[in-house]
Write a structure and sequence with these properties.
Shape: globular
Mean pLDDT: 96
CATH superfamily of the largest domain: Type I PLP-dependent aspartate aminotransferase-like (Major domain)
Distance between the termini: 55 Å
Protein name: Histidinol-phosphate aminotransferase
Number of domains: 2
Low-confidence stretches: none
CATH architecture of the largest domain: 3-Layer(aba) Sandwich
Pathway: Amino-acid biosynthesis; L-histidine biosynthesis; L-histidine from 5-phospho-alpha-D-ribose 1-diphosphate: step 7/9
InterPro entries: Aminotrans_II_pyridoxalP_BS (IPR001917), Aminotransferase_I/II_large (IPR004839), HisP_aminotrans (IPR005861), HistidinolP_aminotransfase (IPR050106), PyrdxlP-dep_Trfase (IPR015424), PyrdxlP-dep_Trfase_major (IPR015421), PyrdxlP-dep_Trfase_small (IPR015422)
CATH topology of the largest domain: Aspartate Aminotransferase, domain 2
CATH class of the largest domain: Alpha Beta
Organism: Kangiella geojedonensis
Subunit structure: Homodimer.
Largest sheet: 7 strands, mixed
Radius of gyration: 21 Å
Bound molecules: pyridoxal-5'-phosphate
Number of helices: 13
Structural class: alpha/beta
């Protein structure tokens, strides 16, 4: 092969690190000679799929030779009604990551700057880098977003700001008045993408209800997902809410079938499964208390979280601890790639799954 294909990739892509996929659980079990691995690594919903979503997908099986509804009419109508906007303000995606990338591709060019926080969700730097735009990383404050510094970092070249609220992998969040004060400082030609992947988990009354703000801040785009509290991570369904003009632009380069028929059916059904959501939130709350209590007892510093995961300081490099836990049959997430080399992110599981993690942690702490 005489051609150096990396030279053909666009400059942003040349500098991206290759994605390191984890091994399938069945493969790990075979290699390690263990069974019943507990996976607390990807912030998935531990209670399994909603029976209503499953039934809706099963009903679709016989129609799968047909293309999906490219407009996602029924799902959009249901979301629009639920969040109180017009149907023309919704963009559907193959997970919300798909929508985040789409939005960036529509608005950001290599000459632009994109702002996000240190320790913010990994998709923001990847998307920015892939376009070849300039990444502007704002140092975190108490692990969370420093919105004052973020506003000060805006230049005439700034095109987009990503804010995860709550943030992954820190579980931190910004309050309504703080976010509003920030939005007041952002010029209208700078788009603010509010990634609310964990929206459903947050109970605090100071957590902002941002979709009604879109009327006042036309540069605001809110994204949400069915992957977390709604338990459809493997199905891939997410959406963005924005003003009609922005939504029209985002939909121009969107692949018409970027949400498949099963995902459309499942997402629509789970929105009606109030019982499922309720149970998911209850299990999560109990699991969070279970883990917090142990971290306190064993004197591990953790970052208080309003999500379905909790990130804990192991007090030393967490890579070997992760490996040890893996060998004991518990998968958690090291976050060294987020500049947090001593932390592990632990997704909240079912009570017995959390208990297994706790047993391994206690063993190690002795
Ligand atoms: C999990 C997560 C998402 C959702 O990703 P999907 O593509 O919808 O599965 C988006 N943003 C953050 C911060 C997340 O943690």
């Amino acid at each position: 092969m005489s051609c150096d294909f990396i030279q053909l990739a666009n400059p942003g892509v040349q500098e991206l690190h290759p994605y390191q996929p984890g091994k399938p659980i069945s493969e790990l079990e075979r290699e390690l000679g263990i069974t019943n691995i507990v996976k607390l690594a990807s912030n998935e919903n531990p209670i399994g799929i909603s029976p209503k979503a499953q039934a809706a997908m099963e009903k679709k099986f016989s129609e799968l030779a047909r293309y999906p509804d490219a407009n996602g009419y029924y799902l959009k109508a249901k979301i629009a009604e639920r969040v109180g906007v017009d149907i023309n303000q919704i963009t559907l995606g193959n997970g919300s990551n798909d929508v985040l990338e789409l939005i960036a591709r529509v608005f950001v060019a290599p000459e632009h700057e994109v702002i996000f926080s240190q320790h913010a969700f990994v998709v923001y730097p990847i998307v920015t880098q892939a376009i070849g735009a300039k990444k502007v990383v704002i140092p975190a404050k108490d692990w969370g977003h420093d919105l004052e510094a973020t506003a000060e970092a805006i230049t005439p070249n700034t095109r987009m700001i990503f804010i995860a609220n709550p943030n992954n992998p820190t579980g931190t969040w910004v309050k309504s008045d703080e976010l509003k004060a920030f939005m007041d400082k952002v010029p209208e030609d700078v788009l603010v993408i509010l990634d609310e992947a964990y929206y459903e988990y947050v109970e605090d009354k100071d957590y902002p209800q941002t979709i009604p703000w879109i009327k006042d801040y036309p540069n605001l785009i809110v994204t949400r997902t069915f992957s977390k509290a709604y338990g459809l991570a493997g199905v891939r369904a997410g959406y963005a809410v924005a003003n009609e003009e922005i939504t029209g632009l985002i939909n121009r380069p969107r692949q018409p079938f970027n949400m498949n028929s099963l995902a459309l059916a499942a997402a629509e059904a789970v929105l009606d499964d109030r019982e499922y959501l309720q149970r998911a939130l209850e299990v999560n709350k109990a699991g969070m208390e279970q883990l917090e209590a142990v971290f306190k007892e064993l004197s591990y510093d953790y970052i208080p979280s309003v999500t379905n995961f909790i990130t804990v300081d192991m007090g030393k490099p967490a890579g070997p601890i992760y490996q040890h836990m893996l060998e004991q049959g518990v998968i958690v997430r090291p976050v060294a790639n987020y500049e947090m080399p001593n932390h592990l992110r632990v997704s909240i599981g079912l009570e017995e799954e959390n208990a297994k993690f706790i047993r391994v942690l206690r063993e190690m702490t002795k």
